[in-house]
Specification:
single chain, about 130 residues, mainly beta, Laminin, 2 domains, 3-stranded antiparallel beta sheet, 12 strands, about 0% helix, elongated, EGF-like domain-containing protein, EGF-like domain
Length: about 130
C-alpha cells in the first residue's frame, strides 16, 4: 500500500492511500469477478446475460458472490430465431448455456488452426 501526504496550509495535512487497485475495461472477465461474471469497472462486477447473482443484486462488489443460471430468464438461443447469429460461410453456430460459439463445418478449418470462434467477422474457414 502506498501513502502520499500533501500539505495545503501550515498544520493541515491530507493523507491519500492507494490500495493498488487498477482499472479494468468494462465487460471483460477479471480475476476478482466470479465465473460467468465480468468487470463493470475497477470495483464492481455484473453477471453475464442468462445468469444472476445469488444475492439478486445486478451489480456487486462482494468477492464471494456467485453467478448462477437464471431460473427467471431462460437461456437465449443465439443460433435460433429471432437472433440467428451468423457464423459466416462454411461454419455452424452452436448454442451453449449463456453463450454460443461457431465452428467450421466438416471438411473446413480455421486458417489459424483454432477450433472455435464467436462471429462471422472472425471466420477464416477454408477447405482442408
Amino acid at each position: 500500500m502506498r501513502s502520499i501526504f500533501f500539505a495545503f496550509y501550515p498544520g493541515l495535512w491530507v493523507l491519500l492511500i492507494s490500495s493498488g487497485a487498477t482499472a479494468q475495461k468494462a465487460g471483460v472477465p477479471c480475476a476478482r469477478c466470479p465465473q460467468n461474471g465480468h468487470c463493470t469497472n475497477a470495483t464492481f462486477c455484473r453477471c453475464d446475460p442468462g445468469f444472476t447473482s445469488l444475492s439478486g443484486q445486478t451489480i456487486f462488489s462482494n468477492p464471494l458472490e456467485v453467478c448462477t443460471v437464471s431460473t427467471c430468464v431462460p437461456d437465449i438461443n443465439e443460433c435460433g430465431p429471432p437472433l440467428y447469429m451468423s457464423c459466416g460461410n462454411f461454419a455452424d453456430c452452436h448454442n451453449v448455456e449463456g453463450s454460443h460459439y461457431c465452428e467450421c463445418t466438416s471438411g473446413y478449418e480455421l486458417l489459424s488452426g483454432g477450433v472455435k470462434f464467436k462471429s462471422e467477422k472472425e471466420n477464416t474457414c477454408q477447405g482442408k
